[in-house]
Design brief:
2 copies of one chain form a homodimer. The mean pLDDT of chain A is 94. Helices cover 21% and strands 26% of the residues of chain A. The radius of gyration of chain A is 18 Å and the shape is globular. In chain A, strands 1, 2, 3, 4, 5, 10 and 11 form a 7-stranded antiparallel β-sheet that branches. Chain A has a 4-stranded antiparallel β-sheet with strand order 6-7-9-8. Chain A is α+β, with helices and mostly antiparallel strands and 266 residues long. Chain A folds into 2 domains: 138 residues, 3-Layer(aba) Sandwich (PSTPO5379-like); 111 residues, PSTPO5379-like domain (PSTPO5379-like fold, 2-Layer Sandwich), CATH 3.30.2040. The termini of chain A are far apart. Chains A and B meet through helix 3 of A and helix 3 of B. Chains A, B: InterPro entries: D-Glu_cyclase, Putative_hydro-lyase, UPF0317. Chains A, B: It comes from Desulfofundulus salinus. Chains A, B: Its EC number is 4.2.1.-. Chains A, B: Keywords: Lyase. Chains A, B: It holds the Pfam family D-Glu_cyclase.
Chain lengths: 266, 266
């Protein structure tokens, strides 16, 4: 069994292989530095068009990195040769909106009519923020990012509708503009912020009481900055109560072969 | 009947109304300055997922601006209140890959199972180039942009596959970098170029013999710059020979309420 330290020097393919063999089943943040990690949503084909359309209509919370062929668990673009049934450390299985299992592979759940969606994740732009000298508080404090349900509605597609969920990072005032510039380069992983500075304007009442994740310290002179969050499509899909939906377990992402830098538009 | 001059000062909604009433049936370049125009592709629902997936997999040639609800001709995001059956000046109707009609409305062809896709068009970034002082030769020469079939394959989705088609604009060498910067701001309308300088590297043999559109003058000191072209999805859809496909007629685009500036990521 690999620990985090042993895993840190492995390539994406080596990590996926270790995960597949059962040698690694922990969260993935910090692994395969420089490579994009992805959120996973698996749905039956009869919902795939509406879910893809939901993503197209809401690209900030739902940046699509790859979509598999119906019934094929290989993400041919994001990681050729990988197997989405076995290559994530932990999955959650939902039936009609209720979680029925948390498992380390989904071989027994896979069906010929399933379509897997890989959605960009904030780890990519957080690494870019850190490289630009912008602090990321929840990483400093060893916490999960604070996430809030906003009063902003996503654009509906078929059965998929619901509010935008955002993540919040407190940024020193003199670095806020840099944070906008840095994350604007990455529309494929949530991109530029959706709001800066006044949480009540987007329906958030108390920054100390996030709806998901952990509260973090906001120091004097810091401004709360909000980005669209990948929890949005999962929450929306769950609310539609599909007969079967499979996702990654929180923090246990799929590690792609796509370089963070390749996701930048400029 | 409005002429081009009479049409030039109308808003997008006024233009669509004039077109709907039969008062304008000419090409749309130069109209509704500052507003995005769009390519139209209409397909039956059973092909809609694969076509949307093709667009997701090939965002440079196929930048999706809006997708209608099944059977509903109103593009609720790009132009609320508009009717895609009547609000373009000219349409082409294809059955099994063969053009069977060119018409000024498609009311008689509309069906409850049709889905309309509006795809970004190069007019938006051409206006941005002109505003940045970068000349656009085919506009100067009153011609259609030269387009070439490349040796680059698009990523396949279901029955949709084929080569990338590009448009070419000769740019003075000292303005090429500016042209890259300006168009990079607009990933929703083809974005940055796909190639600069050596047509043979992307399978183009003779710049004087475009596959579609007109040849344009290339002056000494100018570099040919290639952008992904919206003809790609139409060519790919046509090659899949769907039982019914409807598109805009070349140059007769849909005029949206989206401002060009709103399509810029930075």
């Amino acid at each position: 069994m690999l620990d985090n330290l042993g895993a840190q020097n492995l390539s994406p393919a080596e990590l996926r292989s270790a995960i597949r063999k059962g040698d690694y089943n922990r969260p993935t943040p910090g692994l395969a530095s420089g490579y994009a990690q992805a959120n996973l949503v698996i749905l039956p084909k009869d919902l795939a068009f509406d879910f893809l359309l939901f993503c197209q209509r809401n690209p900030k919370p739902c940046p699509v990195l790859d979509v598999t062929e119906v019934g094929d668990p290989e993400p041919k673009f994001a990681a050729p040769g990988a197997d989405l049934r076995t290559d994530l450390p932990r999955y959650r299985v939902y039936e009609y909106g209720q979680m029925v299992a948390e498992v380390t592979n989904i071989t027994d759940y896979w069906r010929d009519d399933l379509v897997a969606f890989l959605l960009g994740c904030s780890f990519t732009f957080e690494e870019a923020l850190l490289n630009a000298g912008v602090p990321v508080r929840h990483i400093e404090e060893g916490k999960n990012v604070p996430m809030f349900i906003t009063g902003i509605s996503c654009r509906q597609a078929g059965p998929f509708h619901g509010p935008l969920v955002v993540s919040m990072r407190p940024i020193p005032a003199h670095l806020v503009i840099r944070a906008v510039q840095v994350t604007s380069r990455y529309p494929a992983v949530h991109g530029a912020p959706v709001h800066i500075g006044q949480p009540e304007l987007i329906g958030i009442k108390d920054l100390n009481r996030p709806d998901f994740g952990d509260a973090v310290t906001i120091y004097p002179g810091e401004v709360p900055v909000f980005w669209a969050c990948g929890v949005t499509p999962q929450a929306v899909a769950m609310a539609a109560k599909p007969e079967l939906m499979i996702t990654h377990a929180p923090g246990h992402m799929f590690i792609t072969d796509l370089r963070d830098q390749d996701l930048a538009v400029i």
